[in-house]
Amino acid sequence: MTLLRLVIVLAVVGFAAYIAMKLFPMYSEYYSVKSALKGLQQEPGIANQDPGKIKDLFFRRLYVNYADEDLKPENVKVERKDNGYTLTVNYEVRRPLVDVLDIVGKFNKTQALNGGGSTSEGE
Question: Do 102 and 94 form a contact (C-beta atoms < 8 A)?
């Protein structure tokens, strides 16, 4: 392998590592959102809470995981459904990559809140 090929391979590997460093925090935050939704669904009596209290509990869980940076209250919707609620989190994260290029991640997750043992949708 010549020196030029080694430099090219190192440049490609370095650029891939740079992109991975930009993507990791976005996906880490998304998995914290998923975890907070699952935990909220397991919360006893969650189906009897009012929507404001549900949002507050959700954002408290995110705050504990240091994952509330990109998520705003307007990105979280609580809707009454059947014998509980449906919590929908829909948000976009934009990070600068190089000069005028950005990495954009769009995340959407829906969780039924019936007070335990329900299904989740979306990803």
Answer: yes
